[in-house]
## 1
Amino acid sequence: MTNSFEPALGRPASGVIVTGGASGIGAAVSSALAAVGRPVAVWDLDGGAAAEVASDCATNQGVAAHSAGIDVTDERAVAAAIEPAAEALGSIGGVVHAAGIVRPALTDVIDLDTWDDVIRVHLRAYAFVVNALLPELRAAGSGAAVVGIASIEGLIGHGAIPSYTAAKTAMIGLTRALSHRLGPSGVRVNCVCPGYIETPMLAPTIADAGVRAAFEATVPLGRVGAPGEIARVVRFLLSDEASYMNGSAVVIDGGVTACGGQQSNWEA
Ligand SMILES: NC(=O)c1ccc[n+]([C@@H]2O[C@H](COP(=O)([O-])OP(=O)(O)OC[C@H]3O[C@@H](n4cnc5c(N)ncnc54)[C@H](O)[C@@H]3O)[C@@H](O)[C@H]2O)c1
């Protein structure tokens, strides 16, 4: 066992696949991993941005890095991306599922296209990407780990985004089931539940100063979070530092769910 983010002495740093790694939280995870010497493969619909993140990791952190412009809901594309990633990274000992979309349903409870698209990318792809990478993860041996990027919406309901809320809640359930299933083969599975994080996904929502202020008023820390604040926890969960963590849903939200979204309107 090791006491740092680094791999155990003598064991090469295993590579990590980061879906949705071209933007926001996924891009921050890719950089955070590269900063401690872990090779990364960035898989994203936006192949150009994925290549830029991978190139930044290789150039600035000196790690092996690879990218693929793929739709992670397409099982054939995922299957085809594995071999080149494994070749470039040396081995694959980690997966982070950060690919995601949000589609508000404001005029009706739900429409079928929104439901299908949202469930497909958050939940179905989480299951099938992990499934496709199982041979690599098992071959990496103990120390292999999966992290799903769920959300506080997996813990509290939100009427404007019912499909997203359902998908994130199910991601937590899938994390628990996978931790049970894969733990015996040495693969740990955890997820994180970020709160309001300043990324391109949240940008349209908080572009309205009133909405940003309303969010800030309900977060005990008084601000929205930065992608790096999620990435550092994800890096920890992928590392040997978290060797006994399995099946957890780690909340990283400045305290907003702990206090039920009540406003903090007093002086500290
Ligand atoms: N930003 C927040 O406040 C927040 C809070 C909680 C959870 N999350 C979750 O974090 C994850 C990352 O979100 P973000 O805020 O960084 O958003 P983002 O929009 O910045 O990044 C999402 C990335 O996923 C990629 N992507 C979407 N669909 C894909 C597909 N089918 N195949 C491959 N790539 C695909 C996009 O191209 C994009 O690069 C998502 O799962 C999101 O639901 C975000």
## 2
Amino acid sequence: MSRRIVIVGAGFAGLSAAIGISADDDVTVVSDQPWCEFLPNIHELLSSRKRPTALRLDAQGRIQRAGHRFVLDEIVEIDVATHRARGRTSGAHEFDALIVAVGGVNATHGVDGADRHALPFKSVGDCARIRDRLQALAARSGEHRVVIVGGGLEGVEALGEILRAFPRFHIELIEGGPRLLPTTPRSLDRTVRRECAPFDVTVHVETRVEAVHEDAVLTADGAHIPSDLTIWTGGPTGSPLLASAGLTPSAGAWAPVHDTLEASAAPGVFVAGDAAQLPAPISKQAYHAIDMGTCAAANAIRRLEGRPLEPFSPSGKPMLISFGHLGCFLVVGKWALFGPAVSLAKEGVFQLVAAQLVPPLDTGSAAGLWDRFAGALPEPGWPGLSSLIHGLVGATDLRVLPPNP
Ligand SMILES: Cc1cc2nc3c(=O)[nH]c(=O)nc-3n(C[C@H](O)[C@H](O)[C@H](O)COP(=O)(O)OP(=O)(O)OC[C@H]3O[C@@H](n4cnc5c(N)ncnc54)[C@H](O)[C@@H]3O)c2cc1C
């Protein structure tokens, strides 16, 4: 009898897990959207540099082509004791092994008014909404004031795209930590601030947001910052499903797993991608999620066959942080490179990873790859190549940022 494997979520981790299992097994992927959203590039929606369709990979089609069942539904309950996951509309899905790959949810950390008045920055739909609001704001006369809460990777990438498309806007960037991009070398914080100098940008660090109103942001030090549009990039937190399934010790936490990705709380249940909390925590990155999906799939099969599980070993890859038309950072340890040409590397990663996860239907053909490349450009066809040419011309403007104290 074939083994029933259920995968919850078809993002980076769920999709790569599904691709890693043979069609001989009885695999069901249940995800609440038919695509895998390419989140590392969603900032580009703000400036219309990319269109939503370019960032939505056809996960459903890819999973079905791999010979598996795809169910478009939200899993609302997992019973690890009876080995059942329940879909909101599709009912019970029984499993012999389960892979939970649900990513995270937007976290507003209980800040008063943030859910109502700040726009989240967590999905293609979120960023398309922000783009629409930015365009509506630009069409209005008078001042255009945008507040970005969060000066991490998402906040800085959002700032770069707003400067690209709306260079006259007044922008306030608020970060709770002592500097922008707190997990990267200090040189990045300094470079971002220097690049912002010609623009109307104010950076606040060590500043905690206390409340968000419709037209202002209030900080813990008593400042009242007027805002026509507030963008929330406060980072993700664990899905409520993890807590209700008993996979986490508390609500909002990530699911603790062994180094094999098997849930500490439930043998036979594997957790992959952002949802998993390894004994030695790693950054929540798409490339880790893809590798974890592959590892979780292999270990789920090993568990069903009674073979020993293998540990997940995270690969070290450089980090790419886009800063609009001003450039892109490539961070390797304590060193970084900055310049417009590095943006080509980020685009290259997008094209390669997208082609690896969901190859064009006419695999290997130049036409199929061109369709995806052209589809990712702001304008179809040759006019869109201007951005590529801009990147190539900027190849000479490359700065090495050595480690600083
Ligand atoms: C703005 C932003 C920028 C980022 N930039 C980078 C970057 O530059 N480089 C990088 O490597 N990483 C980046 N990341 C992180 C990266 O996107 C994540 O690490 C990656 O998406 C995690 O993959 P995942 O499969 O765990 O989760 P996701 O990609 O979030 O996929 C989870 C899937 O599960 C589905 N799902 C959730 N709950 C349920 C449910 N109950 N039932 C059914 N389906 C469900 C979701 O709809 C989704 O399709 C960024 C993330 C964000 C938000």
